[in-house]
Write a structure and sequence with these properties.
- By secondary structure, this protein is of the alpha+beta class.
- It contains seven helices and six strands, in the order αββββαββααααα.
- The strands form three sheets. The chain has a two-stranded antiparallel ribbon with strand order 1-2. It has a two-stranded antiparallel sheet with strand order 3-4.
- Helix 1 crosses helix 2 and helix 6 packs across helix 7.
- The longest helix is centred in the N-terminal third of the chain and has 13 residues.
């Protein structure tokens, strides 16, 4: 049986060595002919518009007005433009940076200097690691925490408790555990009685989990 070659992150530094089929999940490898590049440039221009009231220090943003990715939490719009070429979907801002700089390391993330996720202006984009992207987000105060966290801003979009597809317990099971504990029964005894693991019982009692009921 013929062995398949295993590709490592280092192989990304030379994208010409890879085909789309040899790339796993995550970002798609970008390798286009000259004709395809001209076609993609036209599509980027046709599906975007200049926004003159954006960050003045960086110049105007070029905002994507085409399809937007819905791969965010619970299918909530992530706010990144998406472009399909030959049945393969790419992030519009990644294509934009690639067309302006085909030699950039495709193993890296494409980050926004302007913090406008719809922007595809290559002058507003830079390649960086996941850590670079997170540090950039935190330094600009864009990380979700406290009342700005997704779960607090959009509680109706969160799937909790027995409604979650992986949940093995019902609300009454959880309430029963807490009632047994309130009656004086020890956690270990509750675990034996209900068939749950002691650590799971402890988390239910202390509201580390199932804190919504």
């Amino acid at each position: 049986m013929k062995q398949m070659k295993t590709y490592t992150k280092r192989d990304w530094h030379n994208p010409e060595q890879l085909t789309r089929q040899q790339v796993g999940g995550g970002s798609r490898i970008m390798r286009f002919t000259e004709f395809e590049r001209n076609e993609l440039l036209f599509r980027l221009a046709d599906n975007s518009r200049w926004v003159t009231d954006s960050n003045s220090e960086l110049g105007p943003c070029r905002e994507w007005i085409g399809a937007i990715s819905s791969r965010g939490r619970n299918n909530y719009k992530s706010g990144y433009g998406t472009l399909t070429h030959e049945t393969v979907s790419y992030s519009a801002h990644r294509i934009s940076l690639f067309l302006s700089n085909p030699q950039f390391d495709q193993s890296l993330h494409v980050c926004h200097k302007c913090d406008n996720t719809l922007c595809i202006n290559p002058n507003h984009l830079f390649a960086g690691t996941a850590r670079d992207n997170i540090h950039d987000m935190i330094s600009k105060g864009r990380h979700s925490h406290g009342d700005d966290h997704f779960s607090r801003k959009y509680p109706h979009k969160m799937t909790r408790g027995e409604a979650h597809v992986t949940s093995k317990l019902k609300n009454e099971d959880v309430l029963n555990v807490r009632a047994l504990y309130a009656s004086g029964m020890k956690g270990a005894d509750i675990a034996r009685k209900t068939g749950l693991r002691p650590m799971h019982v402890s988390k239910i009692i202390n509201r580390t989990i199932w804190k919504h009921i």
